[in-house]
Design goal:
single chain, 3-stranded mixed sheet, globular, 33% helix, alpha+beta, 4 helices
Length: 90
Amino acid sequence: MTIDKEDFESIADEIFHTLPETIRAKIDNVHIVVEDLPGSESLKKVGIRSNNMLLGLYEGIPLNRRGTAYGMYPVVPDKITLFKKNIVYV
């Protein structure tokens, strides 16, 4: 099965919007991106050697680690990367 990046992004967005509101309300300052496969830096971050085993990667400040000053100054958005080829071919 093959799917182009735009269709995959559309499906991911559609699924995000089907999450319960209680969960979506907690997702703040997060950017979701799609890549074909993880690069060596992503694999190194999580300690995986094979690039076909990583489905997604969260990079940022988890909610439970955000202090009271979070957001008072401009903050780079957290990032969730979905690895399309690994998800589609599971």
